[in-house]
Amino acid sequence: MRKLPRGLLLIAAALAALPVATASATVRATPTNVDVSQRHFNESEEAIAVNPTNPKNIVLVTNVGHREAGLTAGMFEGVSFDGGKTWSTKLIGDNDNLGDACCDPSLSFDRYGNLFMTYLFEVENTVPIALSTDGGLTFHLVGNIVAPPSGTPTKSSGDNRGLFRFVDQPTITAAHGEVWVIFNAGGPLFATGAPVSGIGQVGPFFAGEVVPNTNNCTYGDIAIGPAG
Question: Burial of 58 by CB count in 10 Å (0-12 exposed, 13-18 middle, 19+ buried)?
């Protein structure tokens, strides 16, 4: 039998001495469920986002039962800067600088660390856009999407049927220097967007347009391609 050189024997012996990796060693334990709100009342239709510039920064916003909690407006918000171990919590949109928030929050961080939020008001048939540049600790309004002026040729008359007789289920997405929102505009889906050039640097939202062939559609979603 041919003998291996001494150097190869030493390498083989060293490799044999290494511990054998097992499948269980690479499996992480399932995280423990956390009751972020610690409230006795109901929450629903939660939205959650993780900051790509600081993955330990997690933000969630959810509907709350206004009547049972004795409220006229507001949503619950939780913010964590330690990966969800601890949370700071509060009500937002309870007739503060975000107005009379009803429900249906949607959140999206972009690559700069801007956190965008959209939601619905209690009464107004408009869709607000709010921005946070401090990881969700504070928000301010940067847009309020309203019905286009009467007679604006957004799309064909059939597509415009019922436009902005109500608004519902907004979704917001931010990526590649843009932020877009889509929502049910009382029959058709309606979309608009704005350019983003840095932290807190958000341009105006354009007038928006009806998504063709979406009459009687609900729960729209939107994505931004890798090229923007």
Answer: buried
**3-state class (DSSP) for residue 7:** helix
pTM: 0.83
Tokens found for residue 93? 């949109």
The Cα 227–Cα 199 span in angstroms is: 20
**Residue-wise pLDDT tens digits, 149-203:** 765 555 555 666 668 888 999 999 999 999 999 999 988 899 999 999 999 999 9
Residue 76 to residue 150: CA distance in whole angstroms: 36
Alpha-carbon distance 172 to 109, whole Å? 10
Residues contacting residue 76 through CB under 8 Å, at least 6 positions apart: 37, 39, 43, 61, 62, 63, 64, 89, 90, 91, 92
Residue 77 pairs with which residues in a beta bridge? 61, 90
**Cα gap 105→86, rounded to integer Å:** 22
C-alpha–C-alpha distance, residues 164 and 192, integer Å: 14
Which backbone phi and psi does 224 adopt, to 5 degrees?
-110, 130
- Domain annotation for the chain: domains and CATH numbers: 43-149+164-210 (2.120.10.10)
In tens, the pLDDT along 37-89 reads 888 888 899 999 999 999 999 999 999 988 888 889 999 999 999 999 999 99
